[in-house]
Automatic annotation (TrEMBL), chains A, B:
It comes from Bifidobacterium santillanense. It is found in: Cytoplasm. It is an enzyme of class 3 (hydrolase). Pathway: Amino-acid biosynthesis; L-histidine biosynthesis; L-histidine from 5-phospho-alpha-D-ribose 1-diphosphate: step 3/9. Homodimer. This is Phosphoribosyl-AMP cyclohydrolase. Mg(2+) binds at D89, D91, D93. One of its GO terms (molecular function) is phosphoribosyl-AMP cyclohydrolase activity. Binds 1 zinc ion per subunit. Binds 1 Mg(2+) ion per subunit.
Amino acid sequence: MTDNEYDNTTELDPRIAQRLKRDPKGLVAAVIQQYDTREVLMVGYMNDEALRRTLTTGRVTFWSRSRQEYWRKGDTSGHVQYVKSVSLDCDGDALLVEVDQVGAACHTGRRSCFLEGGPLPVVVGHRTQEQKEGTDE
Amino acid sequence: MTDNEYDNTTELDPRIAQRLKRDPKGLVAAVIQQYDTREVLMVGYMNDEALRRTLTTGRVTFWSRSRQEYWRKGDTSGHVQYVKSVSLDCDGDALLVEVDQVGAACHTGRRSCFLEGGPLPVVVGHRTQEQKEGTDE
């Protein structure tokens, strides 16, 4: 292993751990996105060890706040999440985990937890003419 | 207004409010996704009033945990988020907000906060042959 490689074999590499901004319970939010369709499937939470397992095993592991235990997605349901990439956000309190989701991400059997909850009524916003003509994306 | 319409004019409609599962600070996580490219841009937090404003004004409003104030995205930066849709998840503790993001979502000037933080080293996972051949998505 070269000096530049991270070592997550027994604990989360300190260079990653020091970048995390955890909530009072030691958790960061993890947004789970299907890697090819880019559908947002669910949001879970990870502590340092859940993140370490997610980075090193090819499978997503959360910390279950309700059950207070590690939860490797799919172990009971078969609805495995295979890890494709993990990115940390600018201030270290959120993760974006791109996965290949087998079957349903939601415990209700829906593909996405947001399909289960469903849309709320919104007033849709639109760019101004100036913004449309600008060079911004 | 018919009986079926939600009324968010002065406060968040009780039928929506009762579905929210807030953290101890009264907040739910809001995943912000560009509506057409489906890029995940950032994660923010909303209380009931921030959600009400987001649903009714065409613009995304967060509750800033660091500044303890409402934060209508783009008011100082110009990097406005126009609301296209808002969905609640199955257990009411996360929102998916599809937006049209003008310019950069990240305060650093990057399009996405996850581009700014960047990728972590991962072991990539793969479906089993059985899962590849199955009828699951």
